[in-house]
């Protein structure tokens, strides 16, 4: 029960003849909330795909749920990067969640007891993400945050021990980002799910995190937020002077690196 759900040792990957990162090592504990940070194009989404077994590695070892990456993919919930559903999409939120059970059987009713069990499971995860009030509505009519909660419910409907989220906060305002992070933390604690999330801005989610994997300079560092997001750690990672400051409102500001990641800025404030 306490064994890491993901163990990465000295990972390396190459895309199009270019080494994306190497020497990447970390462990993801059960029931933990981990965020993957770093500049654009550094390979954050590539790392999630490697955990899924969809991105071949050129070096290192990667164990996921006690087996080689990709060997037990059905036990991993995954929410890829995606835009919002168009307003013209009339599929109910409940039906979107049901796709997580068996997308090939969408629209084909189950008989008797199996159908009742399926509906009970769908209702359970809808309650888990606090979407009871709108799950019966057309998903195209919902806000970005409401849509994202239902997509997360879809990924959770099979009760996976590991959930991967690729920038689920990107289209949300700062208040909605914090609310989503609080929800993810509660899922970790109450359901025993380990969550690994790629994010662009750490500040709204910082109070809810257990671990950080920071990709930069062709490698990574990992550890608690307090250990990773420091002047010393980021300076060593980038190979140049980097300063981490804490603003009066408690937000982190990172200055001095060659390619500043946007996580320390308020991208929704104009």
Number of helices: 7
General form: globular
Q: Per DSSP, what share of the residues sits in E-state strands of 2 or more residues?
A: 15-25%
CATH architecture: 3-Layer(aba) Sandwich
Number of strands: 12
User: How would you classify the helix and strand content by structural class?
Assistant: alpha/beta
Strand order of the largest sheet: 6-7-8-3-9-10
**Rounded radius of gyration (Å):** 19 Å
How would you describe this structure to a colleague?
This protein has 270 residues and is α/β, with parallel strands linked by helices. The protein has one domain (6-264): Rossmann fold (3-Layer(aba) Sandwich). Helices cover 29% and strands 25% of the residues. Strands 6-7-8-3-9-10 form a six-stranded mixed beta sheet. Strands 2-1-4-5 form a four-stranded antiparallel beta sheet, covered by helices on one side. A hairpin with a 2-residue loop joins strand 1 (6-15) and strand 2 (18-28). The longest helix is centred in the last third of the chain and has 18 residues, at 174-191. The chain starts with 5 loop residues before the first strand and ends in a 15-residue tail after the last strand.
Q: What is this structure, in a nutshell?
A:
The chain is 29% helix and 25% strand. It has 270 residues and is of the alpha/beta class.
Topology:
Layout (H helix, E strand, L loop, with lengths): L5 E10 L2 E11 L4 E5 L6 H9 L6 E6 L2 E2 L7 E4 L13 H10 L9 H17 L15 H13 L5 E5 L7 H18 L2 E5 L12 E6 L2 E5 L1 H4 L2 H8 L4 E4 L5 E4 L15
Helix pairs in contact: 2-3, 2-4, 3-4
